[in-house]
Amino acid sequence: MKPKILTTLKTYDRQTLVADVLAGITVAMVALPLSLAIAIASGAPPEKGLVTAIVAGGLISALGGSRVQIGGPTGAFIVVVFGVIAEHGYDGLVLATLMAGAILLIAGFFRAGRLIQLVPEPVINGFTIGIAVVIATSQIKDIFGLSMHEVPAEFFEKLSALWAARETLNIPALGIGLVTMGLIVALRRAFPRFPGLIVAVALTSGAVALIGWPVDTIQSRFGDLPRGLPAPAWPDMSLARLGELLPSAVVIAFLAGVESLLSAMVADRMIGGRHRPNAELLAQGAANLGSALFGGLPATGAIARTATNVRAGGKTPVAGLVHAAVILLVMLVAAPLAGFMAMPALAALLILTAWNMSEPHRWPGYFRERRSDQFLLVLTLVLTVVADLTVAIGVGVALGLALRLRRRDVPASEWETPDR
């Protein structure tokens, strides 16, 4: 359970430091608009995304079991965070995140890192695609610039409300969104190692500011971003409140644990390394505790940012620490500039993030899987979209484990008629 940074620093040199610093800056440029967009999509103030990237991202790199893992707020949490805030308020989310951190610390202490292997892959794929669908539909309002007082949380009600508001379409907003998407895709293909994402959002947001188009920005909707981190504070809690939020905390802990370990495994394949799963769980627990104390969002290892770190040349957890420090520097020095980011540009970014989350290159392979695995994937997907993430994960994992036992030909129980 030893943090990876302690191992890597034994042979650390100047060349590695330069590589880590350059990679950390690159990842920060990617994480900055993503963190803001994820916070907004979750129903939280935008600065909460930056707080999470700084505090949780730094702790995950400092204490984690992967050489190159980058942590922070991720799209996987949008659905559950939005639901917790809607039902229990933002203070309820902070307490749920704190509880999730404690659950992850306990899981790491009892060496539960290997238990991810018991979660059926179709369940992971199903709720990932389901989350992607929910994220994409939640951004329709902003990318089309629709005028709506409130967007319902329930999926079919949301679609109905969006359709009812179709006549309020804002053409400049749609144009900004489409151009942003086109620029992100083009820059990513032309310069894979370059943080084209921040360039695309900056260019289209700059056009909105210069031309004066009637398009919402972070500043116009939420006001000025704060210059610095808030003071740490312990959330209010009671036994009744803890019991009320326990199911949400368990879901947050589950998502944080699964996504961080999946991300670490992806990183292992990219660098030919081997992560320490229990150290990773402990780091996720500490990161979520830290994020909650500073009023941030739930955090986990981010697969896209971790892959960006590897492609940019990151070698050790120092790159993740640099990434957190750069975002903090931007918050201290350039927070007003971040306020000019256009909402349709951030919506375009999240829609592309949702598309990538769904991993469309793997869809043909799903049709070649067993029928039972296909059913499990579709069931988890549908429950994630139309019901509740807690229900989707619970039903999916239970059915998946039952199918696994059936395939292993576990003998049926011998029932006898009770003697009454």
UniProtKB/TrEMBL annotation:
Cellular compartments per GO CC: membrane
Keyword flag Ligase: no
Record domain SLC26A/SulP transporter: where: 17-378
Topology within the bilayer: Multi-pass membrane protein
One of the GO BP terms on file: transmembrane transport
Keywords linked to the UniProt accession: Membrane, Transmembrane, Transmembrane helix
Domain of life from the UniProt record: Bacteria
Chloroplast recorded as keyword: no
Compartments in which it is found: Membrane
InterPro entries for the chain: SLC26A/SulP_dom, SLC26A/SulP_fam
Transmembrane parts of this sequence: 21-43, 70-86, 92-110, 169-187, 194-215, 245-267, 325-355, 375-403
Major subcellular site: membrane
Protein name: Sulfate permease, SulP family
Species name: Roseovarius pacificus
